[in-house]
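Field reference: sequence -> structure
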Amino acid sequence: MMAAAIQENGLQLLPNGNLAHNIGNVEPETEPDGTSQRLMPAEGPQQPIAQAENQTDSGETPEIDIVINNVVCSFSVRCHLNLRQIALNGANVEYRKENGMITMKLRKPYTTASMWSSGKITCTGATSEEQAKIAARRFARCLQKLGFNTRFNNFRVVNVLGTCSMPFAIKITAFSERYKETADYEPELHPGVTYKLKEPKATLKIFSTGSITVTAPSVADVQAAIERIFPLVYEFRKERTKEDLLAMEWKRRGQKRKRSYTHIEIEEPDGFEDPLMDTEDDDENYDSEKSWD
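Structure field:
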């Protein structure tokens, strides 16, 4: 099968260097307008794609796009943070005293950081690993501008959430009965089957409409998990019903509406400067010895 990982803002290269990963040998091809890329078979013999189970009845290899919805990362600034001072002097912050933490938001990239007084920070909302690191550095820079002696340290991607849609519906009841050891299906609690993979380490939510949600430690693991699960669910494929198509349409509309909210432009009064909207010059002026591991 062919799995392409794309971002919310369109199809582009991922930080790990892969646009769309195929089990066989492939070469990326760029469209003339430069807006999209797709995989084309490389010249020369190719390895068989898993087995015949991974191919459709017509013998064609299906193309599946994986949308990265959220990348969670964590890092440390290696200094004590005065949360009250950040709440009084910072911008776009919310002080949650009962939880002993403070939340700060960025508009570009659209992310949210949770900060603790110990200097540990978690960042959510990015749609790629590269975007997550850029957001983390900007949060550290914001703290540095508030007077803290920050050092960007211990950055790592903790969790990645990706979704994809199979070109067919799935008989999840029969699927859960076949793989009882690794699949958990409780229709009274959740409409999907929870399937756990050990290698790569990932948790998948499989729905009867053909939609699959993957949670894994990295983007590469999300792609590998989809490639592992495809031959298993292909055996239990079925034609989509009108209810399945309607459910997918409502889900697609909801995602489109959510993406439109993140691009709303807010008019600011004259002379207002948002300290969180950093320029490229700020990125270059940020001390590299303090900003990188």
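Note: The first strand starts at residue 2 and ends at 6.
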